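Each field is set out as follows.
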Amino acid sequence: MEHTLLNLLKKSEKNCRKQGFRSKQYKKGGNCMKENRLSVLMGAAFLMATSAIGPGFLTQTTYYTETLAASFGFVILITIILDIGVQLNVWRIIAVSEKRAQDIANLVFPGLGVFVAVLIVFGGLAFNIGNIGGAGLGFNVLFGIDQKLGAIIAAAIAIAVFVVKEAGKLMDKFAQIMGFLMILLTIYVAFSSSPPVGEAISKTFVPEKTDFIAIITLVGGTVGGYITFAGGHRLLEAGIKGRQSLPQVTQSAVTGIAVASLMRIFLFLASLGIVAQGLAISKDNPPASVFQHAAGDLGYKFFGVVLLAAAITSVIGAAYTSVSFIQTFSSTILKYQKATIIAFILISTIVFVALGNPVQLLLLAGALNGLILPITLAVMLIAAYKKTVVGDYKHPAALTVFGVIIVVLMAGMSIYTIATNFSKLF
């Protein structure tokens, strides 16, 4: 018996060493599985957050700060609440069902999963073209090189993440490091712009004006399309699933929203400081203008770093999550998952280099992104009450009600947006 236990201990220690943990952890009573699980949970949270924080995220935040000033704080507050409602519903159902979203959708209604997957992949590919372009612009700001050459370099970096053997772990770490870097640099710029913090706090709760479309835009940009499922699918792939994992899944979902929201808040404060000083924000590149006004040439270089980090992590998140939506439909795609992800990134890069930013495609993808959220969230809410999906699991009624409200709001505004801008999309 003692010999068997010793062999098991050695085997466990060997596995931990493969994961990058040292044997002294055992002497201190540590547990490599717990640390690895925490790394995955944080990685999923940051994958979701950094998928959301892309070039569009930076531009939207700056634009609406200039439009609404300190009252934009109220929009951010409402957006955070709605984002949490979306993620808690979706991630919990994925964890309990132990299935990816497209497979859940197919159980709700045969063929629905294929439809949802097509929407997610198309939206992810279109936005990835914009993300690749944003990364190229980041290299241009930092080193003055051509934007298309910068896009190719950025694509190579993103592909390198998936080439390594432990791609999942590297993706987790890369997302965390880039996330922290973006937040730290934005905090520096926020302090440099000397924003009226007191006014921002007061108008966050008692706004002078608000913009319903801004709320819809921010919710769609933070948890719309593929972003909704980025972290949930990552946890599922890492084996963090089942009812016993719900507390950790909830914690990871809230952490992801918190990271994205923290970035948005500090970018809002940085922009507000510039607006309060009466300085003009460039229409061509609003966030770059804010960084440069706040911290001069150094601030402009900081913007290049933030844009590059935001764009590359969004490329990784979009590629990984989009492919996760089609890999269960084909054994070949599942077998060659990494190769498919790399092909996804290459196609995005080739389109950008050949055509530049295809505005019409991005507009159409943006409209579809708004529609994807209410469709997928509605499917998840229905699935939460189907025994063939979740067994005898009881979904919290409060989350269901909250989810239904979000579905109605997002669907209504998405239909209105498409109807009023249909001619611009084609």
Notes: The chain is about 80% helix and 0% strand.
